[in-house]
Amino acid sequence: MKIAILTSGGDSAGMNAVVRSVVKAGILKGCEMWVVREGYEGLVRGNSEYLKATGSETPPAIKSEPDTVPGYPPSILNSLRFGDGKRLRDGTGDYTGGRTLKGRYIVRVGWDDVRGWFSEGGTLIGTARSAAFRTPEGRLSAAHNLIKEGIDALVVCGGDGSLTGADVFRAEWPQLVEQLRSQSQITDAQAQAHAHLKIVGLVGSIDNDMAMTDMTIGAPTALHRICEAIDNINSTASSHSRAFVLEVMGRHCGWLALLAGVAGGADFIFIPERPPKEMPWEDEMCAAIQDHRRIGKRKTIVIVAEGAIDSELNPIKAEYVKEVLSERLGLDTRVTTLGHTQRGGRPCAFDRIMPTLQGVDAVAALLESTPETPSYMIGIRENKITRVPLMEAVEMTRAVAKAVAEKDFEKAVSLRDPEFLE
Ligand code: F6P
Asked: Enzyme class, one word (predicted)?
């Protein structure tokens, strides 16, 4: 089987561990492994820019390793001979823009190419939020590029938007193949050989906002970063007896804010899924903080999820919270927006272990897949790596977002995690 992997949407710590794991697991199972640079955008662009520049679609293979090494399976050694990926590190040392690979987005990789990747932040194969892939023409071009390279299986690591894209792509695949065949862009034999596209999704997102999995890749590291930031801010907050309002990421999901608040001892937390019950919430927040000050607390930490809302669905903004704390409680208050410091940097241990296990299962799921089996999303439930139909997980995630938009917060939480409210 020829398997390609791409990372899509916002980068997250642990994406490189996924790529490494999928590539190595695939090679061990005798598959030919490819990476797609720059997410779906690379899939749409394919290797034609390279062809235009060099007159050839495939650079000559680099033979860099001996044919036999005692104790190593031939699949690993074979993969070492195909060193396209090595060029990712050639010349400029830039993984995503290396000189010899310019204009080449779909690249065959070997064992060596992903060595040591588990400890690197972000995604070394690049990511993008591709507008082109959202169009039918873009997806047709993506299908053509995969077929041209003979790739029959795709692993997508990204957030709910990226996995929705994967789901659409797989559903449309037969029509795309038929369209390419009828336009004579591919032969009948190619159309037959590529009648089905096997897809597996892995959830890479710091937001932990995907239903039907306990954890998304990158969320534990981001949480860790926020906790470190709170610890750092605590020094100044205590020294000056100040209040700090921290805005944290998470889009429409409050997981990062809630858990950071628990881990960092916050005084008050605003999340989208459970807005303050009392209106005006300003009274509730001030009363809680006054209580804490009365019992001797010198510092105040309020965490605001970027998607926080009040019970009337108005956004709650960090700057406004600061005004309330300053004006009503007379606290010397600062706002700190943690921004992208939450997303980058080296993955924590869990963001290396979980993606590694999930990557191995992703390859197994592809090898076991038949035209009748659904595309799976690889998740984790109660410390066990799980497979759930990708479509169901995407639909459930949308149902959660809808419940939040309709102010049915109990429903949102119970859909996201049925056991949470018990
Ligand atoms: O989905 C991940 C995330 O970091 C969100 O928490 C945040 O809202 C968004 O991406 C930021 O996106 P960008 O990096 O495009 O500004």
From this structure: transferase
Separation of alpha carbons 190 and 10, rounded Å: 34
**How far, in Å, from the CA of 10 to the mean position of ligand 1?**
6
Q: How confident is the model at residue 74 (pLDDT cuts 50, 70, 90)?
A: low
Task: List, chain by chain if needed, residues with CB within 6 Å of any ligand 1 atom.
Answer: 10, 159, 205-207, 249-251, 306, 343
User: Model ipTM?
Assistant: 0.96
Atom of ligand 1 nearest to the CA of 251: 8
Catalytic residue positions, numbered: 207
From ligand 1's centre to the CA of 334, what distance in Å? 23
Burial of 28 (0-12, 13-18, 19+ CB in 10 A): middle
Q: Count of alpha carbons within 13 Å of 54, Cβ hemisphere only?
A: 16
pLDDT in tens, 170-209: 999 999 999 999 999 999 999 999 999 999 999 999 999 9
Q: Distances from the Cα of 119 to the Cαs of 57, 174, 181, 270, 385, in angstroms?
A: 32, 39, 43, 32, 21
Q: How far is CA 317 from CA 259, 290, 336, 341, in A?
A: 19, 21, 12, 19
- Residue located nearest, by CA, to atom 15 of ligand 1: 10
What percentage of residues in the chain have a pLDDT greater than 70?
A: 86
Query: What is the pTM assigned to this prediction?
Result: 0.89
> How far, in Å, from the CA of 249 to the mean position of ligand 1?
7
Supply the mean pLDDT for the chain: 88
Query: Buried (b) or exposed (e) across 30-50, using 16+ Cβ within 10 A?
Result: ebbbbbbbbbbbbbbbbbbeb
Residue found by looking up tokens 């642990």 in the block: 14
Q: Which of 11, 12, 207, 216 to mutate to test the pocket of ligand 1 (most atoms within 8 A of CB)?
A: 207
Distance 207 CA to ligand 1 centre (A): 8
Atom of ligand 1 nearest to the CA of 159: 1
Report the alpha-carbon distance of residue 284 to residue 316 in Å, rounded.
14
What is the structure's pLDDT at 166?
Answer: 94
Instruction: Name the closest-CA residue to atom 12, ligand 1.
Output: 10
The tens digit of pLDDT for each residue in 195-245 reads 999 999 999 999 999 999 999 999 999 999 999 999 999 999 999 999 999
Question: What is the spatial order of strands in the sheet that 243-248 belongs to?
Answer: 268-270, 300-305, 243-248, 333-337
